[in-house]
Amino acid sequence: MYIAANQYSGSTLLAFLLNTHPEIASAGHTIGWQGLSPEFLCSCGAQLRDCPFFTAIRRHFEEAGLPFTFDGALPTKYSISRFDRLDRIVFDNLPKLRSATLERARDRLVERIPGIRHRIEAADRANVTFIEAALDYAGASVYADNSHSPYRARRLAEISTFSVHPVHLVRDVRGIALSTHRNLGWDLEFTALHWVRVQEQIVRVLQNTPSFADCAAEYDNLLVHYEDLCDRPQAVLAKVVRPIGLDAPEGWTSFKSAEHHILGNEMRFDAGTVRKSERWKRELPRVTRKAIEARCRDYARKSRYCDALTQILDPMFGG
Ligand SMILES: [Zn+2]
Q1: How far is the CA of 204 from the centre of ligand 1 (A)?
Q2: Cα–Cα nearest to 202, from 241, 171, 230
Q3: 37 alpha carbon to ligand 1 midpoint, in Å?
Q4: Residues near 281 by beta carbon (within 8 Å), at least 6 away in sequence
């Protein structure tokens, strides 16, 4: 299972909840990030180098003869350099082009370049090894990756070892705008525009990936709204796992009792109960909320993915 999302959308919370299911294992943000180190505290409270889960992962890599370190991005990341911008052009979105056809052509082109093909094959092997090790450790059958980028979901779907079921996690853009403004200093309206572009990108990639075509045809089936997840976790989680043939256990709303080794934000140390963050309702003035809505609606109206974007926006702003 793959969770595609904008940052600050509650993907760490969703990973915790999914990881509580006996058949599901998740390490959360499975590709690491710049600045990750062996001293980083896993959600189990141990440093990564001492955590039993990540020790088991490292052992599987050693047995497979593959490198594995906790310094920055993990070997599971599709990457050719330490420069994020270059990696984005090779593996993610082509800036400003917004074309599924050109992105597919780019994918076929880079796969023909021997040096890049070698890196893709190495990352494929690393992903298979990581996921098999995580499932083995947890005694689970489904792995949940919340690494955000839909392009990663597409890459993973090309590995024949497993099948990928995508989920598109959405949080109210006004909450995203406030979180991004507070954490990164971004302008609120600029964040709203960036957010709606990311939503369009996720829709475009999922709808244009052949193995996702069936489930993405009724796009609402892929959508998980963070606010719904917090209000009705049992029902929403049941909807998330039904397509992969799993039942939802009773009382699936508290997650502290299970063993977790999740790479994610600071909520990994929370009390283990679902708490909805809606600070924006207190802090964003009405005029700013209206401006954010106008930005998103205007963008969606002109998009060729208008239908799916409307399904994303209506629950926030009213249809
Ligand atoms: Zn751990």
Answers
A1: 35
A2: 171
A3: 14
A4: 174
Question: How remote is the CA of residue 64 from the centroid of ligand 1, in Å?
Answer: 22
Q: Compute the distance from residue 134 Cα to the ligand 1 centre, in Å.
A: 12
Ligand 1 geometric centre to CA of 43 (Å): 6
Mean pLDDT (the chain) is 91
Asked if residue 314 has pLDDT above 90, the reply is yes
Provide the pLDDT confidence category of residue 127 given band limits of 50, 70 and 90. Answer: very high
12 C-alpha to ligand 1 centroid (Å): 15
From ligand 1's centre to the CA of 50, what distance in Å? 8
pLDDT band of residue 26 (cuts 50, 70, 90) is very high
Distance 66 CA to ligand 1 centre (A): 21
Q: Which helix (H) or strand (E) holds 26?
A: strand 24-28
What CA–CA distance (Å, rounded) separates 262 from 278?
Answer: 23
Cα separation, 269 vs 271, whole angstroms: 7
Angle between helices 188-207 and 150-157 (to 10 degrees): 20
The residue that leads in pLDDT, 45 or 268, is 45
**Host H or E run for residue 239:** helix 233-241
Check if the beta carbon of residue 31 is closer than 8 Å to that of residue 130.
no
Confidence at residue 224, expressed as pLDDT on a 0 to 100 scale:
97
Q: Which pair of structure tokens corresponds to residue 235?
A: 């029902």
Ligand 1 centroid distance, CA of 108 (Å): 38
The alpha carbon of 106 and the centre of ligand 1 are apart by a number of angstroms equal to: 37
Q: What is the pLDDT of residue 88?
A: 85
pLDDT band at residue 213, thresholds of 50, 70 and 90?
A: confident
Centroid of ligand 1 to alpha carbon of 196 (angstroms): 34
Options 3.40.1000, 3.40.50, 3.30.70, 3.30.300; CATH of 2-317: 3.40.50
Per mean pLDDT, which range of 77-81, 194-198, 222-226 is the poorest?
Answer: 77-81
Q: Give the start-to-end residue ranges of the domains of the chain.
A: 2-317
pLDDT reported for residue 271 = 60
CA–centroid distance, 48 to ligand 1, in Å, is 6
